[in-house]
Amino acid sequence: MKNEKKAVMITKKAGEDMLNNEQFEEKTISRKEIYSGKIIDVAVDEVRLPDGGTSKRELVFHPGGVGIIAFDEQDRLLLVKQFRKPLEKVILEIPAGKIDPGEGQNPEMTAARELEEETGYRAKSLSHLTSMYLSPGFANEVLHIYHAQGVEKVENPLAQDEDEVLELYHLTLEEAQQAMKDQLICDAKTIYAIQYWELLTKGK
Questions:
Q1: What residue stretch is flagged as signal peptide (predicted)?
Q2: Rounded CA gap, 181 and 54, in Å?
Q3: pLDDT tens-place string over residues 95-108
Q4: Number of domain units in the chain
Q5: Is the pLDDT confidence value at 116 over 90?
Q6: Are residues 35 and 109 in the same domain?
Q7: Residues 6+ apart with CB under 8 A from 171
């Protein structure tokens, strides 16, 4: 196997060495802007490879987003049903949305807003669980996942986005697991939410 490396214990020093990018970095030679939209920008970079060769990289730039894991008073997961055009089908997802201008340094603000807009619920507190890159091979989009605690129904919630058509669902763990098997739940953030829920349940 090309560039096969012997397995090593990942100590702090080994981890730092492993993440050293000097021998892997691709230097940008030029960039061609292809598209600038409401949500994403697209570009093609010509890059210099570590071995001296060149290649092209198709890139998507995104402001980032949030996903919220929230449970109602009966310990059911709050999910929203919506049509996803790239998939050409309806799926169930945890509440989520992109970071708007002015929220970039505070994704928790985005999480609070999206939870209320999409579900009509508000959290007393939000705990940051993790942040993940969704498709690092071509996109810089990072998703921040929060666990909403002390969730309560709001009498007059923030309005949904005008171009969103959503329906709120409350699923038990067993129902969510079945929905995942049936591919009604098929996106990474919601699968992560269910696995997180399973770990919480095992810890009780």
A1: none
A2: 43
A3: 999 999 888 789 99
A4: 2
A5: yes
A6: no
A7: 76, 77, 79, 92, 179
Q: Evaluate whether 92 touches 80 at the Cβ level (below 8 Å).
A: yes
Domain of residue 37: give its range. 25-59
Q: Count each helix (H run) and each strand (E run) in the chain, helices first.
A: 4, 12
List, as one string, the DSSP characters of 6-31: ------HHHHHHHT--TTT--EEEEE
Which amino acids are annotated catalytic? 162
Q: Are residues 139 and 67 in the same domain?
A: yes
Do 48 and 144 sit in the same domain of this protein? no
Taking residue 17's Cβ as centre, other Cβ atoms within 10 Å add up to 11
Chain length of the chain: 204
Q: What is the pLDDT of residue 23?
A: 81
Query: Is the entire prediction scored with pTM above 0.85?
Result: yes
In one-letter notation, the amino acid at residue 100 is D
Alpha carbon 3 to its chain's center: 31
